[in-house]
Amino acid sequence: MPSYSVAELYYPDEPTEPKISTSSYPGPKAKQELEKLSNVFDTRAAYLLADYYKSRGNYIVDQDGNVLLDVYAQISSIALGYNNPEILKVAKSDAMSVALANRPALACFPSNDYGQLLEDGLLKAAPQGQDKIWTALSGSDANETAFKACFMYQAAKKRNGRSFSTEELESVMDNQLPGTSEMVICSFEKGFHGRLFGSLSTTRSKPIHKLDIPAFNWPKAPFPDLKYPLEENKEANKAEESSCIEKFSQIVQEWQGKIAAVIIEPIQSEGGDNHASSDFFQKLREITIENGILMIVDEVQTGVGATGKMWAHEHWNLSNPPDLVTFSKKFQAAGFYYHDPKLQPDQPFRQFNTWCGDPSKALIAKVIYEEIVKHDLVTRTAEVGNYLFNRLEKLFEGKNYIQNLRGKGQGTYIAFDFGTSSERDSFLSRLRCNGANVAGCGDSAVRLRPSLTFEEKHADVLVSIFDKTLRQLYG
């Protein structure tokens, strides 16, 4: 452990424990304001109504003044806690004012300091083997522009240097071949890659995300369904992963020459925090290389330190890096990293939109990376994750209604299951009444997504709330 607490350094006034002052949750003021807001904005997914002016560090404050330990952190998007002083400092800087007041159309009018801003921030944080970047607007946009890069790369390879034909130029205006493409993106069962039009065709986590939206006929490969504890199920899990690799190989053969890329999460997040071994991902990478298929690793939720590595796929120790790595969330920015210059189309305006990212977000990402390095927050997250996992293991021992505790050695990226979704939802609802904001994923999983300033003292508070809540529900 370091000789100082990063949370105390940033947040000397951070609460030491939750405080729930209303008899029900959400409280009366929050309910009233949410109802008012619902007249102009859909609030049906709202957990609470936050007061971000009063929130500090790892604690979120709501409209009624309730103070909750936040282990969801805006769907894994708050890297350094609420109202981080270093982020507030850059937010009030001249550089931020200029970036916001003169938001550039980056592809046509890049700012004279954008290159240096990327070099000093997002590119310094690049995964091993990646030295180029495309900036985007969101995680979904990052994935969709990555798809476009892969399609154009594969088409250029087939053209072998020839120009577009007249037939291609004319047919594409009618959305027809040969100007369009028959190539596909292969994703995995229970994967989540966004809710935009193209990314939805690779999202496989919940029907509600996809219903009523036209979809591409793109292939779906199985993702391993591991048994826990891992140490007691080595042979069964090895057989499960081998079966998934074999089925993936069959899909590659069935779609021979048509799979432009595969996209996969290191840990499937929205689909239930599903894990696979390094060996599974290494074999997958070998197959993609053998068949000329590009590999996109979706690190939108797993990236930027949460798993005890800067990038979750670093746990795999791949002999060949992925072709593209998408990111967003904890960097407060979005885009994808890559290394092959051919993934940049050979003509302008093909990978293009008005903003192509946002220098104001790149400024924040730079500060986040600098603070992560300054305080070695990736190492600290690994240490805190081990501490929390061990405490949860002891708490859950003998409690048969909790299953599949997972995420050991994966930082604070920890999850566990209840027997049913209703049991899980009751647990999460009661947790908020007891002062902890935690969320679910998949059918019946609970996932932990704290900030990188979450420390042992916060873990102790969380475990205490878990214990209290389980006693209330199960005696």
UniProtKB/TrEMBL annotation:
It catalyses: 4-aminobutanoate + 2-oxoglutarate = succinate semialdehyde + L-glutamate. Its cofactor is pyridoxal 5'-phosphate. GO terms for molecular function: 4-aminobutyrate:2-oxoglutarate transaminase activity; pyridoxal phosphate binding. Its EC number is 2.6.1.19. Coiled coil: none annotated. Pfam families: Aminotran_3. It comes from the Eukaryota. Belongs to the class-III pyridoxal-phosphate-dependent aminotransferase family. One of its GO terms (biological process) is gamma-aminobutyric acid catabolic process. The keyword Transferase applies. Homodimer and homotetramer. It comes from Lachancea kluyveri. GO terms for cellular component: mitochondrion. Keywords: Aminotransferase, Pyridoxal phosphate, Transferase. This is 4-aminobutyrate aminotransferase. It is an enzyme of class 2 (transferase). InterPro entries: 4NH2But_aminotransferase_euk, Aminotrans_3, Aminotrans_3_PPA_site, PyrdxlP-dep_Trfase, PyrdxlP-dep_Trfase_major, PyrdxlP-dep_Trfase_small.
